């Protein structure tokens, strides 16, 4: 039995979910021995290919689905704790709301379900509508909204109760670039307030911009887990355009990097860390070379994600 | 309690959004049509019988037919509303943002049940009021027994809404509705089997009739409508001795009906609490 850890917003320990096979079908293991934790105050990226078990895991954490094995805690308490649920906000991937309600009525409904009193609802609803950019449409019915606007309304619902933990499952799937930027700003704002955010998204550039740590899962197991900067540890390539490159300068650069490729004015070197870059510049200047451009080519989260998922590397 | 009422009012609004109130209005129009029929004039013209006795007979017929109509339409309405109340919301994903809120699943289930019952009770009240008005308008009489008859009639939407909501926790919308209709079909055989058992003097058929009456106690509920109406209505089945025997009922039957409804509610609650969304 996992001991509650108050400093953790989310903790799973050997979590497992097996859907029983019916009518001759084999049982399906959606989550297989999943263990990870999220510190309070973090923005945590929850990544994985389609069918990896991300949404199932989120549903287990929220009590929508029951685990077949293992344990999990939210805000230091076992999942299902009602006091903790009052401090959680959730936007599902497959969102469909009571679209006969106006945005105002919809948020009032969810405010009631969060247990917020009338005064609190009256003050909070305009705030969150403003945050998601729906103030002007507050009296419109949700069915009149575009998919993106419905997702904004869903996001407003997720942060309505000023939650300590916000779980966002593909929060920008229906949003345009402006909407995605707004969501990033909301997530950043939540982080600044010390809130914890679990972000499940396939838009890895957004994850890279907003998250402190990520877990990559595949076939219901964590295959990579840690700070983004630590995970993207592949050698960095630096591409330079150098005029008057002498043999001596090339040798100096090779000595600093260990790997050098020259193609006319273009020089490509592989470095172990960014600290070497000033030394590269100094060596070029010292050798009377003219440095016209220098572009560090870092591995992106997307590069790393594809590499890790395709390889199925264990952490 | 706030959570319970919030879910109940949401369910009520959902029923309104589905425009099921149109069904309520259409049935109400049938009753309004009854009120407009010039029946009392015909009874004067056609026979030499006591007009008051004729009117009394018409009133009883109206009461019996009216309860039958209310029973039928409220049951259909109950099945229609309850069949998708859980499954459809799970399939749509609506419940996935409701269940994580700080309340128990039993609150959600009971809230849905309460919302359905509120809508059905409103429809039922409108139809009942119109039926009483029709009888008063056509015959100038008001039997207090009609109220007990109507109260017994409400057992039908109560049972079908509860049973169908229970089915809706594990079956798709069409299947939940289908199961409810199958239950009704099984139950309808009770009186027929009893009638046959008396004719054929067959204990096996009689036992079968009794068993069917326990599987789905619609027959027992019908008998309670007859008992409730008393001299305010006339059950055509009771004109023969066998028919009269088949209509016998007791307080234990009523207790069984109520326990049956409570059990259906309990099973639905249990399944909903255990299932994945």
How would you describe this protein?
The complex is a heterodimer of chains A (315) and B (277). Chain A has 315 residues and is an alpha/beta fold. Chain A folds into two domains: 8-229, P-loop containing nucleotide triphosphate hydrolases (Rossmann fold, 3-Layer(aba) Sandwich); 235-298, ACT domain (Alpha-Beta Plaits), CATH 3.30.70.260. In chain A, 36% of the residues lie in helices and 29% in strands. Chain A has helices spanning 54-62, 82-85, 103-114, 118-131, 147-159, 177-192, 204-210, 228-231, 247-257, 276-286, 301-311, and strands at residues 8-19, 28-39, 43-47, 69-74, 77-78, 88-91, 165-169, 196-200, 213-218, 221-227, 236-243, 260-263, 266-271, 290-297. In chain A, the strands form three sheets. Chain A has a six-stranded mixed beta sheet, with helices on both faces. In chain A, helix 3 packs across helix 4 (118-131). The two termini of chain A are 24 Å apart. The mean pLDDT of chain A is 89. The longest helix of chain B has 35 residues, at 105-139. Chain B has one domain (2-34, 49-274). Chain B is 79% helix and 0% strand. The model of chain B has no long low-confidence stretch (mean pLDDT 88). Chain B has helices at 2-17, 21-36, 39-46, 51-83, 87-92, 105-139, 145-153, 155-168, 173-200, 203-215, 218-229, 241-246, 251-274. The two termini of chain B are 24 Å apart. Chain B has 13 helices and no strands. In chain B, helix 6 (105-139) packs antiparallel against helix 13 and helix 9 (173-200) packs antiparallel against helix 10. Chain B is an all-alpha fold. Chain A binds chain B through residues 59, 62-66, 82-83, 85-86, 88, 90-92, 94-98, 100-101, 109-110, 112-115, 154, 157, and chain B through 2-3, 6, 10, 13-14, 17, 92-104, 274, 276-277.
Topology:
The complex is a heterodimer of chains A (315) and B (277).
Chain A: E1 8-19, E2 28-39, E3 43-47, H1 54-62, E4 69-74, E5 77-78, H2 82-85, E6 88-91, H3 103-114, H4 118-131, H5 147-159, E7 165-169, H6 177-192, E8 196-200, H7 204-210, E9 213-218, E10 221-227, H8 228-231, E11 236-243, H9 247-257, E12 260-263, E13 266-271, H10 276-286, E14 290-297, H11 301-311
Parallel strand pairs in A: 3-8, 3-9, 6-7, 7-8
Antiparallel strand pairs in A: 1-2, 1-4, 4-5, 9-10, 11-13, 11-14, 12-13
Helix pairs in contact in A: 3-4, 4-5, 9-10
Chain B: H1 2-17, H2 21-36, H3 39-46, H4 51-83, H5 87-92, H6 105-139, H7 145-153, H8 155-168, H9 173-200, H10 203-215, H11 218-229, H12 241-246, H13 251-274
């Amino acid at each position: 039995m996992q001991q509650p850890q108050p400093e953790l917003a989310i903790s799973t320990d050997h979590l497992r979910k097996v859907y029983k096979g019916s009518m001759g079908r084999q049982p399906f293991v959606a989550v297989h021995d999943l263990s990870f934790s999220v510190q309070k105050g973090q923005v945590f990226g929850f990544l994985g290919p389609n069918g990896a078990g991300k949404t199932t895991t989120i549903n287990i954490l929220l009590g929508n689905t029951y685990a077949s094995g293992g344990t999990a805690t939210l805000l230091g308490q076992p999942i299902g704790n009602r006091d903790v649920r009052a401090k959680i906000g959730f936007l599902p991937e497959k969102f469909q709301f009571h679209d006969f309600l106006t945005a105002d009525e919809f948020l009032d409904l969810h405010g009631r379900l969060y247990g917020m009193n009338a005064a609190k609802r009256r003050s909070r609803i305009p705030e969150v509508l403003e945050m998601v950019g729906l103030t002007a449409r507050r009296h419109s019915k949700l069915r009149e909204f575009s998919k993106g606007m419905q997702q904004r309304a869903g996001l407003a619902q997720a942060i309505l109760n000023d939650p300590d933990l916000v779980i966002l499952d593909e929060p920008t799937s229906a949003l345009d670039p402006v909407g995605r930027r707004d969501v990033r700003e909301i997530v950043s704002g939540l982080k600044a307030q010390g809130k914890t955010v679990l972000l499940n998204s396939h838009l890895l550039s957004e994850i890279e911009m907003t998250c402190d740590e990520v877990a990559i899962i595949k076939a219901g197991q964590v295959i990579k887990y840690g700070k983004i900067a630590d995970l993207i540890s592949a050698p960095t390539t630096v591409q330079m355009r150098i005029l008057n490159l002498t043999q001596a300068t090339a040798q100096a650069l090779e000595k600093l990097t260990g790997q050098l490729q020259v193609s006319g004015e273009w020089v490509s070197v592989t470095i172990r860390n960014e600290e070497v870059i000033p030394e590269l510049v100094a060596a070029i200047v010292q050798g009377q070379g003219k440095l016209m451009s220098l572009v560090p080519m870092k591995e992106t989260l997307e590069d790393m994600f594809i590499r890790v998922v395709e390889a199925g590397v264990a952490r | 309690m706030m959570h319970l009422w919030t879910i109940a009012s949401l369910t009520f609004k959902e029923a309104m959004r589905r425009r099921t109130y149109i069904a309520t209005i259409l049935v109400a129009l049938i009753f309004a049509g009854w009120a407009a029929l010039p029946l009392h004039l015909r009874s004067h013209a056609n026979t030499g019988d006591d007009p008051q006795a004729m009117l009394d007979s018409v009133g009883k017929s109206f009461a019996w037919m009216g309860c039958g109509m209310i029973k039928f339409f409220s049951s259909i309405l109950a099945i229609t509303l309850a069949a998708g109340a859980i499954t459809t919301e799970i399939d749509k994903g609506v419940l996935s943002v409701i269940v994580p809120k700080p309340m128990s699943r039993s609150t959600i289930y009971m809230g849905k049940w309460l919302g359905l019952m509120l809508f059905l009770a409103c429809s039922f009240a409108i139809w009942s009021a119109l039926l009483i008005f029709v009888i008063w308008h056509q015959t100038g009489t008001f039997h207090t027994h009609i109220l007990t008859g109507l109260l017994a009639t409400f057992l039908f939407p109560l049972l079908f809404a509860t049973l169908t909501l229970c089915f809706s926790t594990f079956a798709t919308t069409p299947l939940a509705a289908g199961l409810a209709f199958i239950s009704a079909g099984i139950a309808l055989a009770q009186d027929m089997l009893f009638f046959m058992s008396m004719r054929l003097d067959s204990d096996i058929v009689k036992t079968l009739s009794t068993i069917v009456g326990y599987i789905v106690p619609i027959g027992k509920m019908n008998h309670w409508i007859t008992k409730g109406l008393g001299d305010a209505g006339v059950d055509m089945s009771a004109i023969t001795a066998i028919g009269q025997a088949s209509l016998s009922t007791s307080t234990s039957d009523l207790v069984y009906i109520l326990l049956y409804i409570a059990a259906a509610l309990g099973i639905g609650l249990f399944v909903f609490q255990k299932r994945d969304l």
